[in-house]
């Protein structure tokens, strides 16, 4: 039995449909960015499609895009077996505030930031404990992506401090892994999947040197964990959305970091890939790594994440999902009447 | 060397070969940075600097003119970014503004300088359409040196370029110094432009930047090979274009180099075996035949 | 009319026609297409000459429009074959322009076009080449051409004003509502070519581009309304012409170069001092916000 067949049988046992592996080799992942005359005016914005949330939105408006997207993107969500592998309950010591003997892996104080003229983050305070799987949710324009970027020094901050493992970002860069949004990249670039995964090791390889055999092996191992080692030599323009996301995740895994930031990793991926990604994140958590995910799908928050941070320009609430992901908090974050409450989210 | 050409012509040939190669390489980087047309704006923006350099020296002094061109082009680049970042004017409009206004200034200065005693008409005008023939051996050494620098910078940090062009956000996350890459990129772009405008002129410089890189895309899926091919195409266009231009009296080199590059592009578009039109047609044909065989009666 | 009068009128007409077309161009992010077309009209003029053996206005106009449309079509064609937008524009216009220059330089068919003239125009010669019109008398040919083009452009813009507005702002919506988006695009390209070639004779390719893009960009910084933007763009264009001409006279330098540079100065003033979008105004507003 090959590794691939092994993976397939494992997944069919949990009742997931294997759509990702059924792709023919002619699949073109991203829609053609090219346009005829009539699409010309919109073309430069294509790359910004995934950063649409950075436009300022009044906190009061009910922006229900998150819930709507989830309704169409994951039709299999309703049939998820409740027996999906649930990790052991996280120890109660990881609560926000006092009682935690260990130094939190990430601590943010009084953070604020602007995007163009608008303040998108104001007075942000929270901390994240080790070995947790936290999601950040909020309406469009709430500043979720910006928060990630500001923490990683990819975007300037107006005020506040961020400490990682008790010290500054610069000192522990190699312990932090970042998986940006998939749409921010040009998938037409001449590279194969292995090339991209290897990029995760460039920090370790060093400036003037070339990747060696062992680096390649590490990359392949990471790809194996994501079930895509057979795509190593495949052109990235020929990968499906789910495969691309797995490549990104493999690239992050290969860095072997202790703290991971992922920006909307489940957006627009098929059910099988979503399952594979969450499995990987749970495995990371079990090994004591910490994971922070900007998430768009309110329906899956309870199932996937043990901690949640509700963000709308500032932190509305933060803590273990059980106690924090309440109807009240969600209403305060999203504002206005919310029709999906009836769909059984809360 | 080619026996039919005079020694001077051989030097010219060598220099356009070097230039084509260097601009093929940098053109590849610009292509993935989505800055292909920025080269057009920058090369037009270089004109005032060239004229000022000449005016300061009083005579044709290539290093000074190149320095002037570089300063002027960099100022242009800074303005494009400044306009884009500080106003609602979009980048393409900013490029158009810098391009035409700087070029206008350049023409203003050029006309004034041409009237001064010693204003070498042919020398300065050659910057508009390119007259590689006006280059002498010393110039070739200057160009070769700069081109070598370009090659070294690209080859040495090859994988860093690849990463930075593909996913700049992730690159910064890994610790790649974004500012350094930006500066290095701008430097090589401006260098190639300023050494190139002598051979092809400010108007056609963009062609050497864009056409070889686009042509290379059709032959390969590997970034490294694309750069190498682009360099090859650029050099070939430079050399063959110059050869053709020697066939006439006073023919400018620029247009013929560009036409040579365009021919290579059309060939690549048609026959390139990774993305070419012919290959696409063949693939579709093969697929159709397979489909027909599968659904032919009696095969079930 | 006096010698100076004709020149200023011609330049003002350039400002008018370019300001109208340019406003649409920059809003549709077609500044680089304008760059391309202002260069490729050269090959249109050369082709027209080769066919008709004359350098007359109407023939040049047709040749230029054909070249402009050819440019737009080729760019689309390459783009559909997978070449990136910018690269398509770059390949097409440089190649066509190079062919044009090569044709002239090699004197194929004895084309006696002065390329310098094509680039920089010679507005100073305009008043000498005249045409006799009934009623009005003797008028410089280039000015007449520009007047005709300006009227045509104005008419097209007024007639289809709301179509221009919607296809510029939201082409997807426009298409879904049944507006002929592609047609409008090619129409605009045709208008650009027409304007570019009419301006060519007077002020050359460089100034034509400067007049198309820069005054419209400056106008963009002063207003939120399309109609006002267009009017301002025309005004700024004309405004660059007058001092440009006099300064060029003073410095004894190229008129078109000076006019182009003046459009830049007007833009500089706009980007710094516009009350709504200028940098100075923004800094002041930020300071007020911080102290509040």
SSE ordering of chain A = HHEEEHEEHHHHEHEHEEHH
Quickly count the helices of chain C.
Answer: 12
**What structural class do helix, strand and pairing data of chain C support?**
mainly alpha
Distance between the termini of chain C: 59 Å
- Using the CA coordinates, give the radius of gyration of chain A: 20 Å
The average pLDDT score of chain A comes to 71
Number of strands of chain A: 9
| Helix content, binned percent of chain C | over 70%
Strand order of the largest sheet of chain A: 5-6-7-3-8-9
Number of β-strand runs of chain C: 2
Instruction: Identify the strand order in the major beta sheet of chain C.
Output: 1-2
Strand content of chain C: under 5%
- Rg over alpha carbons of chain C: 20 Å
Q: Class by helix and strand content of chain A?
A: alpha/beta
- For the terminal residues of chain A, how far apart are their CA atoms? 43 Å
Summarize the main sheet of chain A. 6 strands, mixed
Secondary-structure element series of chain C: HHHHHEEHHHHHHH
What general form of chain A does the structure show? globular
Number of helices of chain A: 11
Oligomer, anyone?
heterotrimer
